[in-house]
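Here is one chain, start to finish.
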Amino acid sequence: MTDQPGLLALWCVPRSRSTAFERAMYERGDLLVVHEPFSRVCDFGEAEVAGRTCASQEEVMTALTETAADRPVFFKDTTDFRLDRLGARPDFLRRCRHAAMVRNPRDTVRSHLVMQADATSPAMGFGHLWDIVSTVTSAGHPMHLVDGDRVAGDPETEMRRYCAAMGIEFLASSLDFRKEPPASWKATERWHAGASESNALGAAPAGRKRFPEGLEEIALAFERDQLPYYERITAALGGATR
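Its structure:
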């Protein structure tokens, strides 16, 4: 590992339990946690990274790299949008320690449609995540797989695996949520209600929304679209999880 402070990148499909995972990283207290800077630029036109306003994916990469020169940084980003500038910055790819996070497509798709009934199939994110996995691994960089289903079933084991792969200490205390959710969640808080209400990684809050029967055919079609990408990701990263 490099002697420089770490820059930990977690690339995730939406609704993979990634925000709960991020909250565990926030609980550690030894990392600056940056919430979805790339997708925020794509969605809102700008993102804040350590007090710096960024208006492009390139500016986000620069801000993350420069911030991580002074202190360890963890960021996670979802792939609702196509993050297509990473290949233009080999220095950024080299600087990061990369992980990808997935969850089985059936539950991912349905969880997404409950939140956004008019979402498109590409917004489910598996294809966009596969593009990132391909970019990172083709450049010769290792990439760890985090499985959202395993996070729910055995959070300690999955977090221990992640910490070992990233070269950071496992802190058992990070699995219990004592701090208030980060202020950076505010703009998109309805998407993070479960992670905000949970008191521990892997603990699902009560009152989950039921899936509308009228969306079942759409969900099945989206699942068929996304499954091949899910299988490519898990095969490439050595973690078939279905």
